[in-house]
Specification:
Largest sheet: none
């Protein structure tokens, strides 16, 4: 367990560096290569595969292959397919086709999405074995995942890759590196079951039994509803900012020329907010922490609708990025910690997989496909004769639609999610 925290920091840094290489700027690449109407399917495939792949790989990690080795296998396959997608995109250039690019990308994402839950399992397992407090010690480790995400956002932007397929090659290379590194991480025990095993246990579906508990059922349902918001700005923020390039008044502004770097303010604020999670969880409880996240999503979308790349409008974009830290972290990280605290050790990986299914799976799939329909209606289906102001108004309407949805979810959560016993201090485990 020597240098355990540092080893877990490296794991988290690489995990989210893989994602940060393309997640924010891919939408701009697609929009500038004639696939603007397909942005939603590229981002929703992350949700579709998250419906079953994290749970499936969680089962494998719980029962047959130690979590750190499962993590390595997933990253090897994800990296290979992502590199192939990047090489195809570079060779095809302006003639890149949706079919081949999407197919290679989809296979990569199918193996990448389970790794988010697996890194949580590897970290929680190692910290508990080492006698650490997961609530106190995990967030400062996880924050370096955000640092890795930001680092690659800046690298891709400054290298001029935000509108090219090079971003996929960078992501794939980092994934292959993490595949090798994962084999050096502390071993996670598997829970082999002797004797006859019923069908539910064989398929690793015991985590779904959590729905029998009213509080957990409500928790996962609202996770799904909030998950709708998770990928909207990832997919559409940079195409939105890039669209201002059609107006000479905004074409040379920082927000247009370096949209990925501007959006990286979101992850910088996320890194700060991660460190606040232990205090907020212990002081206010899970309900108020998640409620704060929901209202932060309302502001995230509304500020995009209100701003522009000039001064002072760009400050509203910056405010949107600042509240993102609360919107994303107070939901995802506190939710993962809550699941870890409320589930039996024998199915923690499966339970983390279920959390991913409800948020990045079902919720994000509905969200990205729904967002694409909204943007298509108000932006991409405008007549070719539409001027810049019509396009801008279309984007505004889209952002306000997303804000309205988030507000409805927040109000429903406030009304129906129980105050007790969920709204309590989360117990510290050693």
């Amino acid at each position: 367990m020597k240098n355990l925290k540092f080893r877990l920091i490296v794991m988290n840094f690489l995990e989210f560096a893989v994602w940060g290489s393309y997640l924010i700027c891919m939408g701009r690449y697609l929009a500038e290569h004639g696939m603007g109407t397909h942005i939603g399917i590229f981002y929703s495939i992350q949700g579709i595969v998250s419906i079953f792949m994290p749970a499936l790989m969680g089962i494998v990690a719980d029962r047959w292959i130690p979590a750190q080795k499962t993590l390595s296998l997933c990253h090897f396959l994800a990296g290979a397919f992502m590199c192939a997608a990047g090489i195809y995109g570079l060779n095809a250039g302006a003639d890149v086709q949706f079919g081949p690019l999407f197919t290679l990308y989809a296979f990569s994402v199918a193996f990448f999405m389970p790794t988010i839950a697996l890194t949580n399992s590897v970290a929680f397992n190692a910290l508990i074995k080492g006698g650490y407090d997961t609530v106190k010690d995990f967030p400062p480790i996880r924050v370096f995942g955000t640092v890795g995400f930001i680092a690659m956002e800046w690298c891709v932007d400054l290298l001029g890759f935000q509108s090219t397929a090079h971003q996929f090659v960078v992501s794939g290379g980092l994934s292959l590196l993490l595949a090798a590194y994962a084999l050096t991480l502390p071993n996670c025990e598997v829970n082999k079951v002797e004797g006859k095993v019923d069908l539910v246990d064989a398929l690793g579906l015991r985590a779904f039994a959590l729905f029998k508990q009213k509080k957990m059922a409500l928790f996962f349902i609202f996770c799904m509803m909030l998950g709708v918001s998770l990928q909207i700005t990832n997919g559409f923020a940079t195409p939105f900012l890039g669209s201002f390039g059609a107006d000479p008044a905004f074409a040379e502004t920082f927000a247009v020329q370096h949209s990925t770097m501007l959006i990286s303010i979101s992850q910088i604020c996320e890194a700060v907010c991660i460190l606040l999670i232990p205090f907020f969880l212990k002081r206010f409880g899970i309900k108020n922490v998640m409620l704060l996240a929901m209202f932060a999503w309302v502001l995230r979308f509304a500020f995009f609708g209100m701003g522009d790349p000039g001064m002072p409008g760009v400050l509203l974009f910056v405010l949107s990025c600042i509240v993102y830290g609360f919107a994303f972290d107070f939901f995802n990280i506190s939710g993962a910690l809550y699941v870890d605290q409320e589930t039996d050790p024998s199915m923690r990986s499966s339970a983390q997989g279920l959390f991913m299914v409800m948020t990045n799976g079902i919720g994000a799939t509905i969200g990205t496909l729904g967002a694409q329909a909204v943007v298509n209606k108000f932006v991409y289906h405008l007549p070719e004769t539409a001027d810049f102001m019509q396009i801008w108004e279309g984007w505004k309407t889209s952002w306000y639609t997303f804000a309205g949805y988030a507000l409805v979810v927040a109000v429903l959560f406030w009304l129906f999610f129980p105050k007790t016993p969920v709204n309590k201090d989360i117990e510290v485990k050693h």
